[in-house]
Specification:
Shape: globular
Structural class: mainly beta
Helix content: under 10%
Number of strands: 8
Distance between the termini: 32 Å
Order of helices and strands: EEEEEEEE
Radius of gyration: 14 Å
Strand order of the largest sheet: 1-2-3-4
């Protein structure tokens, strides 16, 4: 069975494994590309390029959430877990920086 909207509601990312994702606003998704980098997608198009991890080896971004008060225009911040640090991501500007320099390992249920 083929989805009739598959040509407009999907994308193929070659050479990357997506470990987690967060839809932070309607049709706006933050993807964790294993092992460490992030990608912002708007309406199934990549924007801002790849957001590189500032702390080498900080993989396992299995948990991502918006901060309380999140607003795409005035407070566009998402927090991600990581093996070496907890990071703050500005999804409006496409930047990531270390928020807490301690590990936050998230393992399944």
């Amino acid at each position: 069975m083929v989805c009739p909207e598959s040509n407009v509601n999907s994308m193929i990312i070659v050479g990357a494994q997506i470990s987690s994702l967060l839809e932070f606003a309607e049709n706006k998704i933050l993807l964790h590309m294993d092992p460490t980098d992030l990608l912002i997608v708007h309406d199934w198009e990549a924007v801002k390029g790849i957001i590189e991890e500032p702390h080498p080896g900080n993989d396992q971004k299995f948990f991502m959430t918006t901060l309380p008060g999140f607003d795409i225009d005035t407070f566009p911040f998402v927090v991600t877990s990581g093996r070496k640090s907890i990071n703050l991501v500005n999804v409006k500007e496409g930047r990531m920086q270390i928020f807490v320099h301690e590990p936050c390992k998230c393992i399944g249920p």
